[in-house]
Amino acid sequence: MTPAARVQSAIEILDLILAAAKGGGASGDKIVGDWFRSHRFAGSKDRRAVRELVYTAIRACGPIPPSGRAAMLRLVAADPALAALFDGSVHGPQPINPGEPIGEGGTAPQWLEQRLLHSGIEAADWPALLGRAPLDVRINPLRGAADLPEPGEPLHTPLGLRYPPGTPIERWEAYAGGQIEVQDAGSQLACLAVAAQPGETVIDLCAGAGGKTLALAAAMDNRGRLIACDIDRGRLARLSPRAMRAGVAVIEQRLLNPGHEAEMLADLAGQADAVLVDAPCSGTGTWRRNPEARWRLSPAELVRLAAVQARLLDLAAGLVRPGGRLIFVTCSLLDEEGADQGEAFLQRHPSWPTQTLQLPAGTAHGGGIRLSPARDETDGFFIACFGSP
Questions:
Q1: pTM for this predicted structure
Q2: Do 63 and 104 meet the contact criterion of CB atoms below 8 Å apart?
Q3: DSSP assignment of 43-91, as one string?
Q4: Is 281 considered catalytic here?
């Protein structure tokens, strides 16, 4: 591909991503992958270059741009050398016309920037929210010592290592053998907050594909009872092969029907030593990995997510035994999904005390701990722990 053709390809992919963001379609990563599979003439260097253009353009635009071309023109404003590639060649973009729409800069749509400020995320910290995330792994003690081709940088977490973005972890024998799992340092810290112990009964109420479930199983040394729940059959189905690779044998899976979770968990009422509620959220703490996610969020969707989180917290409270603990986690930097949510839970359950968390990173915030890309070099999280009376 010529440099101009790479720019035009990036524009086409950006148009697909923008349409998906507006219509609730596939993620940016899936769209990029599907485009490359259907355009096999693009070599490895072309794919890297096009991907870099796509995600640099996404990160450069705050509000959702009117088109992929407008997003790319935002890059031209910062790098005039790109303008020469708008040359009208056979596979390149058409020349730039004066007055064409250009994507607006910034960090996010204005309403969302205001929510960040209201939540105590200062503007000086915003660039870090869109930086490229490193690759963090967790050593799996259930598989013994990990034989790694590269040592990695130690993290705050006892079993964490950090590698540069793009490190081919999935090609390593240690990954194939389950000795390591890819997991952001923030997620590892959230699992530390659960303080799962061997022999306990632990419920991962929103397990998804099971990244945190596997970490909890390792902390429990494969002893006890670990119930992984979710309403998404596809995501939960990915847990079994991951557990097999990791040598985890303690997990019970439960696929829940939305609206009927309490009935399907009735046998566990008041039985759990710990319940982890890693609730569905806006994902504002994961923009480093999913920068287009900030274009998918709306005030109405934020209200809906907060209502889901409150319902899940109340559901979880009924599962915790007296003296047990409820750990609430969202990968969000917004107080509506963090500090405010925790305060509302305590108002509904005034006999539940907040338990102080001792984590090796993060800042005390609203009765819990906040992790942020700018200050902790992790994804953004809110983590709180409540004790059952």
A1: 0.94
A2: yes
A3: -HHHHHHHHHHHHHHHHH-SSPPSSHHHHHHHHHHH-GGGGGG----TT
A4: no
pLDDT digit string (tens) for 98-148? Answer: 999 999 999 999 999 999 999 999 999 999 999 999 999 999 999 988 889
Q: Domain boundaries in the chain? A: 3-106, 185-387
Angle in degrees, 0-180, between the axes of helices 3-23 and 68-78, rounded to the nearest 10: 130
Question: Could you give the CA distance from residue 330 to residue 196 in angstroms, rounded to a whole number?
Answer: 18
3-state secondary structure 262-316: HHHCHHHCCCEEEEEEECCCCCHHHCCCCHHHHHCCCHHHHHHHHHHHHHHHHHH
Q: 143 is written with which tokens?
A: 């598989």
The tens digit of pLDDT for each residue in 300-346 reads 999 999 999 999 999 999 999 999 999 999 999 999 999 999 999 99
Residue tagged active-site, from 61, 206, 229, 331? 331
185-387: in CATH 3.40.50.1400:
no
